[in-house]
Amino acid sequence: MGKNMGKEKTYLLLVLSVLAFTGSYFLSEVFPFPLWWYYPLDQHWEFGIVTSKGLRMGWYGKVLLSAFCSLAVALLGGLGLKWMPGEPPETLADFLTLAGMGMTLFLLYYIVRILSGGA
Amino acid sequence: MGLIINWLGLLLWSALLPAILPALPALAEGMSVPPALFLQAQGKFLLILHALMAVLLLGSLTHNVLISVNYLRGKFTKIRLEKRYVKVGFVAYLLTFGLGALIYPNYRYHVRALYFDLKMPWASNLFDIKEHWAGIGLALFAAFFLLSRTIDPRTDRRMLLFYVFLSATLAGIVWFGVIAGLLLVSYRSI
Predict the structure, then answer these.
(1) Interface membership of B101 toward A (CB under 8 Å)
(2) What is the pTM for the complete model shown?
(3) Over the stretch B67-125, which tens digit does the pLDDT of each residue have?
(4) I want to staple A119 with a disulfide (CB 3.0 to 4.6 A). Which of A42, A114, B93, B119 is the partner?
(5) How many domains does chain B have?
(6) Contacts A70 to B, Cβ<8 Å
(7) Which domain range does residue A17 map to?
(8) Exposure of B79 in the CB half-sphere (CA atoms within 13 A)
């Protein structure tokens, strides 16, 4: 990474991928998303929004979904930046940096809030 | 006398058997056979490895953040060491995360479903916070590792804020995870 692309572009892609990961993680907490669910007692997986009843775990699917969104955004962003002449504008990088940091802190806080009964 | 007692016993059994036999399948069904979970037998060994990797991770990230914070004050004396901590930390994070994910089904049933959810719901929630934060930390660490390979703190000043932010946030996530993990294990473990 970074050999065929300028440092600024690589940086922008990394910030974008963090933003995509935290954003999709938050959205999957708020809205019902189709996820991979693991059933530990039966040791099997199911995909969907509404799946079978029983003891099930959605965390694996949530991390996978967010990682997929992050990679997809980084890939699309990479293709977009490849054809962009010169370095990306500094204001765009600054804006995305602030958005990435803000979204990360908000997500960490949001998780504590809903799990401590604050929502 | 003994013969009479034997006969009485036989009579009693013959009277009870017709009542007991139809109930046997139901009794067998009601008996709780503990379910076999993924890597249940190796649970404790994997938990110890998970804890050891977490110690390595905590040490490397704490050292990393102490050095990288100095970048914001214009001190660039230990760049190579700082980047080495990122590499060690990233490997330790992947191992800690992977081992935690492997023992998670065992915890989910034997600790959470059978104990925490019934008696200590706050402990279930504390674990969930740790679990979510660890998942988010995985993406942050991947970005941090790649940025560490790209950035030169002496010249790329505009990227430093995000770099130090990632370092400090990851250190916070790991410190929280270790403390929460130790607290939870002190109540109930796999």
Answers:
(1) yes
(2) 0.85
(3) 999 999 999 999 999 999 999 999 999 999 999 999 999 999 999 999 999 999 999 99
(4) A114
(5) 1
(6) 139
(7) 7-115
(8) 16
